[in-house]
Amino acid sequence: MRIGIVCYPTYGGSGVVATELGKELANRGHEIHFICYAIPIKLNRFLDNIYFHEVELYQYPLFEFPIYTDALASRIIDVARFHNLDIIHVHYAIPHATSAILAKTILNNKIKVITTLHGTDITLVGLEPSFTPVVRFGIEASDGVTAVSKYLRETTISTYNIKREIEVIPNFVDTEIFKPVKNLQLRKKFAPNDEKILIHVSNFRKVKRVQDVVRVFEIVRKKIPSKLVFIGDGPERGDVENLCRTLKLYDDVIFLGKQEALYEILCSADVFILPSQMESFGLSALEAMSCGLPVIATNVGGLPEVILHGETGYLTEVGNVERMASYVIELFEDKNKYEKFSEQARERAVKLFDKNLIVPKYEQFYAKILNN
Ligand code: GMT
């Protein structure tokens, strides 16, 4: 198939999923055309069957902001015509579904539009009155719609009063890359005295409640010698760093910023903390599980579909840092339990979310939509 993929090229989860999906599909012989305003961060080397088309954002004094939706639609039209695309698969509804449907209309319906809903396009941004009716239209007018968790499907249907089918295709991980191989050198760097290591990866947005990670760490550290590693960057980072200073934790906290080889760092840690206010899936939790890390997270959104409470980690109510900390301490104090959780986390990632299980589901979905 010839497939166009539209995504945000940044560090966000939806862009990572879209890029990894494109790479896997290319590997399976499909011709993949990424259409984005910058090259996706994970598309960092030449790969056969993959092409990149930049959406150029035209500036004109009259426009206070670049007109992305129209520019993207025009680029989709151009690529679809010239490369004879069968499908345009957009990740994150806003405004990608709108652009794709506009392009499809201009192309006299000669292309199928598939929209994958990822999270805040539905649960946060899409709820803004300035977006809601357009998001709803984008979902109803797409030829096929997928959501990354059952939770996200149900929420979409009820919140936007959706009448159509939405297929759940969960996110996936390359379990051959994200695998439990301890990097002792790295571990020694973070924890020179063999302290335990807590880790958190995110884009430091408010919804991630990163300050709670620090609060959890503060409690754990009083009982068990430990270090905290942060990966990622974003609007809340300054505040989180300040909190570490105020609580006099700074010497035990390592801020690595954005990182490429996530798996190496994940593997050198002991537990993953994800205290999000909302999480439609939690790709970072899945990647950690694949590396054999138990995950302590909040019981929200799609997280219970990924993390099994009492088997691969623990789930708590949002903001209950005491309970989160007590679970971390429990795992650190009970070596057998820790190892069991670690094995079960890895096993769940391999059995349910490996790329070789999930990518064919997208191929089947494409075939179904093309035959409709
Ligand atoms: O980061 C993004 O690009 C999208 C982001 C969001 O804010 O919607 O992440 C969502 O998509 C990821 C990939 O499917 C999921 O793993 C995240 O759980 C989800 N984030 C939220 O729901 C907050």
UniProtKB/TrEMBL annotation:
One example GO MF annotation: glycosyltransferase activity
Top-rank taxon, per record: Bacteria
Domain (Glycosyltransferase subfamily 4-like N-terminal) ranges: 11-176
Any single biological process term in GO: bacillithiol biosynthetic process
Gene3D superfamilies xref list: Glycogen Phosphorylase B
UniProt cross-references to Pfam families, sorted A to Z: Glyco_transf_4 (PF13439), Glycos_transf_1 (PF00534)
Domain Glycosyl transferase family: residue ranges: 186-348
NCBIfam families hit by this protein: thiol_BshA (TIGR03999)
Protein name from the UniProt record: N-acetyl-alpha-D-glucosaminyl L-malate synthase BshA
Lineage: Bacteria, Pseudomonadati, Candidatus Kryptoniota, Candidatus Chryseopegocella
